[in-house]
Amino acid sequence: MAAHEIGSRVLDCHGGYGLLQILAAPIANHCALARWVVNKLAGHLDLEHSWSWRSMLGGVCKWVPVHKVGEHRAMVGCASRMLNQQTIQFGAKQGPPDMLVAADCVEVQREMKDESVDLVYIDPPFGTGKTQTAQGRSYPDGRNNPTAFVQWLAPCLVESHRLLCATGSLFVHLDYRSVHYVKVYLDSLFGRSRFINELIWCYSVGGKSKRRFARKHDTILWYGKSAEYAFYPEHVHVPRKPSSHMRVVMDENGEPVQEKTDRKTGKVYRYPVHRGKIPEDWWTDIELLNRSDKERVAWPTQKPSRLLERIVKGTTQPGNVVADWFSGSGTTAVVAQREGRRFVATDVETEAVVCARDRLVAQGTRLAAGGCPPPDLQCRVLQ
Description:
CATH superfamily of the largest domain: Vaccinia Virus protein VP39
Largest sheet: 10 strands, mixed
CATH class of the largest domain: Alpha Beta
Strand order of the largest sheet: 3-17-4-16-15-5-8-10-9-14
Oligomer: single chain
Distance between the termini: 25 Å
Helix content: 25-40%
Radius of gyration: 24 Å
């Protein structure tokens, strides 16, 4: 239907946030129609990205050519229709688009070529047996039997192993419920010699029991595809502790240096303070997001971007491909986009993909406005 043919009617949109009624009116053209709808729906979660485009760039869908307006279905229909074959252009002149897919991850993995990914990070449901909720959004987190959990996750892990290049890495983020069972499986899949680190991410936010020590850490298992796995420690250095057992002296340039002497050999070790150090395998400097955190979006179990920055920057370089098969709110994809990495992100929950898309579009628009447009973003639903 042409824009000028639209008369007064009510369009019912079931986007997962309750019934939304849009009163249509005669509009001169598609651009005017888009502007009118965004004005009417400013603040609605499904259309937040459209509103942000308008407010930051002064125009609706600035990077979306007019002939592709039909691909943007955020104004009508359910969430799956909104994502079906939607391509958002940010102005990058070359390269394939980044991918955001609402589907079972194994379906997407089986479409991809061998050794086409540099980093896989997954944060699957932990098997709590509960429904995870946050600000009206939720997803089921069943499979609280660890054996059944491993059987469910195994096809994803097998495909991840196939997709990783020789220098690639897999990070699996879990908690106490199933991490030991999954490690045994990964040892058999990758080989025990390919296990690199058991990373302990410690935090303090949340309640504490009076019947045990507080459960305040997650475990991230790191495996390399081969012995030649990539690692760039200089990109993830953390500050040195001022209260170290080492003495602090000044070097020839007047810079502070931590220094210690080996009592047996007499060898002197010197560490420039300003260079920092490689983090240990227990991370206490990154806190869990609280409810009022500015980074927080309406999706449960969202991980902080600093956590993903350390993993992405420590194991990949700009232009490498990052994959997240349980993307949730899209933090991995957001970090990859911001750091110049390509990405493939999937989630079986369409509502999660909508949330991730909104974050990526808002950030991509800001990057483009600053002169560094990221690759186009292709969103789709596998039927």
